[in-house]
Amino acid sequence: MSAMAMESPARFTDRTRIIVGENGLDALAKARVAVYGLGGVGAACALDLVRAGIGYLHVIDFDIVEISNLNRLAIGFSRFVGMPKTEAFMQAAREINTDIEILAEKTFFTSETATKVIARECEIHADCVDLLSPKVSLLAAMRTQNLVFISSMGTAGRLMPERLKIGLMSEVKGCPLARAVRQRLAKLQIPLDFPVVWSDEPAIKPMPREGQRGIQGSAPFVPQAAGHFMASWIVRKILEDTHV
Predict the structure, then answer these.
(1) Ramachandran region of residue 76, left (φ > 0), alpha (ψ -120 to 50) or beta?
(2) Cross-strand pairs, 196
(3) Which segments does the entry list as coiled coil (predicted)?
(4) Could you read off the pLDDT of 122-147 as tens digits, one per residue?
(5) Domain boundaries of the chain, sorted by first residue
(6) Residue among 48, 70, 183 nearest 128 (CA)
(7) If DSSP codes are grouped into helix, strand and coil, which group holds residue 76?
(8) Using alpha carbons only, what angle is made at residue 170 by residues 161 and 223, rounded to the nearest 5 degrees?
(9) What is the 3-state secondary structure (H, E, C) of 116-143?
(10) What is the C-alpha separation between 224 and 58, in angstroms, rounded?
(11) Using CA atoms, how far apart are residues 109 and 10, in angstroms rounded to an integer?
C-alpha cells in the first residue's frame, strides 16, 4: 500500500479547509443532511456533500442504476448497473470519505407516505424527487414543519446549465414542473417562500410513445449542475454561524 493510501481520509478536505477554515470543517463534519432522491440531481448533490466533508447523510431512493442512467448520473458507472442507487451511492461515498456516516433507505414513497420518510434527525433537507405527487407532499410537510430545505425543479430536456438559478418558489417562471407543484401547494395553502433551484430554459419535448407516457431526454449538464447548486446552498447554510 502506498504512503498516500495510508494517510488519514481527513486529508481529502485539505483544500476545503483553505476556504472554510478549521471551524467551518468542524461544522460540516457535525452536520446532518438528508437527500431525497438519487437521480441526476440528487446523486450529484449528495456526492458534493460528501466531498465537502459533511459527516452524516441520510439518503432515500427506491430505484436501481440502469444503463440509461450512465449519461447523467454522478454514480452512473458500469460496475453499479443493476445495483440499488442507495448502495451504489454508499460505495462511491466511502471511496471519498471512509469515515462518513450514511443511513440509506431503499424506499418508494407515495403522496400518502411522504411525511413518514422525512429524516427528522437531520437539520437540512434536499428535495430531489422526480415524481409530482410525492414531491408535493414532501414539500408541504417540510414547509408546514418549518424545516430548513431546498428543492429542485425541472432539469430534464435542457442543455444550458448557465440558465439555472436559486430563488424562491414564488419567483419561478417557465418551468412546467414548478407550475404543477405551485398549483398543488396553493390548494394546500402552503407558502411559496422556500428556496428552489430552477431553470428558465424551455425544455425539449419528450419523445412520444404510443399508449404510454413520453420519454424525456436528459444530459449530464443541467441535472448535475442543479445538484451542485443545491449542495453549495446547503454548505453555505451550515457555515452561516461560523462567519465564513
Answers:
(1) beta
(2) 151, 167
(3) none
(4) 999 999 999 999 999 999 999 999 99
(5) 13-242
(6) 48
(7) coil
(8) 20
(9) HHCCCCCCEEEECCCCHHHHHHHHHHHH
(10) 19
(11) 35
